[in-house]
């Protein structure tokens, strides 16, 4: 079956859909914006207006799923920065959305689920991180992503693979744009853990092509200069004010390894200098 459904045609999902079309797949794509339906249709994507909440799903979710063998879920938790201790509410909104979605997947033609997660599930562990590292998320977003991962992994009605991406970088997206000119930035010697949009798409295509399901993969470019080196260089390249780092405390942080995508999938990173 050469049809794939993508739940969430946003910054990553839309170019991913284009790449799948180029590779001979037919694609059903969802959006929460009615104004985006015509854009999806013009690109050859079968568009669906679908919105998840913690109790129900708005839109033709059955039609969106049926006929496809693979479902790619790329919807952000939108809980960035919320800490369990300081959050006004500990409601598991994102987890409840996933719980609402899963019964529809079980009743559909979907056999494989690719869930786009994040390396934020590892929390503030210091040192080298592989897929064998036990996650210790410290944010609400990381906590709920990890719980959502387990919902897919523990479901025997379909196969699932979890793809944990590092910081997302693209031609139109780089953290330096928000850090330029800032002072007293911490952890100047901590390595970066980013991945370019092209490699995100490349890894997803490889997983589908090789049928590597029931796996967990880190998606991070093997390019780990320090925060200070990288952001200073990027600010210079873009003619932005240089960020200033605080060297008064030792730098702590993690270096995330993606060796498994190279060994399992035979994937070679395209963007090794971000």
Q: Count every beta strand, where a strand is a DSSP E run of 2 or more residues.
A: 13
The main sheet comes to: 7 strands, parallel
Radius of gyration: 19 Å
Question: What gross morphology would you assign?
Answer: globular
Strand content: 15-25%
Say which CATH homologous superfamily is assigned: NAD(P)-binding Rossmann-like Domain
Q: Could you tell me how far the N terminus lies from the C terminus, measured between alpha carbons in angstroms? A: 36 Å
Average pLDDT works out at 94
The residue ranges in which pLDDT falls below 50 over 5 or more consecutive positions are 80-89
CATH top level label: Alpha Beta
Spatial sequence of strands, sheet with the most strands: 3-2-1-6-7-9-12
Write the H/E string, N to C. Answer: EHEHEEEHEHEEHEEHEHEHEH
CATH third-level topology = Rossmann fold
CATH architecture annotation name: 3-Layer(aba) Sandwich
Fraction of residues in helix: 25-40%
Helix and strand composition category: alpha/beta
The tally of structural domains comes to 1
